[in-house]
Amino acid sequence: MYDAFQLGPFTLQYYLIVVLFSFLVTYYLIESLIKASLVRHFILKHFWTAALLIVMTYKFSIVLFRPDLLLTFSWLYVSGGQDGIYLGLAISIIYLFWIGKKEKISLKVFMHSIMILIFTYLVVFQLIKIIVLSFV
After folding, report:
1. What keywords would UniProt list here (predicted)?
2. Could you tell me which of 13, 15, 61, 102 has the fewest CB atoms within 10 Å of its CB?
3. Distance CA 66, CA 46 (A)
């Protein structure tokens, strides 16, 4: 799953392509399958901000977990690993909770939104990973 291919000067990992494609498919599934409601509006309004928080935290959490790499240039090429993904997920949920409080979203609607979002993403990610691994 961590194989990569060259696209010009860039090296792209299959894993990152699967993650990006999973975010896209999840967004469009939620947009098309959930009827117009407060849950749908909340998810679609803040989906890409939460996804960007997860990705940026994943990439730059290496600064928190391995600060000794800051003295070298190799920290640009490594990621935060599994801890970075968990930290990014926690930060994005905290962000969504804060935005939900600001927009006066009830806790029930917030939890419903998060459960739909996470469940949909995990199912889509696993399906796309199976498809990609069967061809690679």
Report:
1. Membrane, Transmembrane, Transmembrane helix
2. 102
3. 30
Cα separation, 97 vs 103, in Å, equals 10
Exposed/middle/buried for residue 98 (C-beta within 10 Å: 0-12, 13-18, 19+): exposed
Separation of alpha carbons 110 and 56, rounded Å: 23
Name the residue ranges covered by the structural domains of the chain: 33-128
CA distance linking residue 59 with residue 79, whole number of Å: 5
**pLDDT tens digits, the chain, 136 residues: what are they?**
457 777 787 777 778 788 889 999 999 998 888 888 888 888 889 999 999 999 888 888 877 877 777 777 665 566 777 888 889 999 999 999 999 899 888 888 889 888 988 899 999 999 998 888 777 6
For residue 10, the SS3 value is strand
Quote the Cα angle for 34-56-63, to 5°: 150
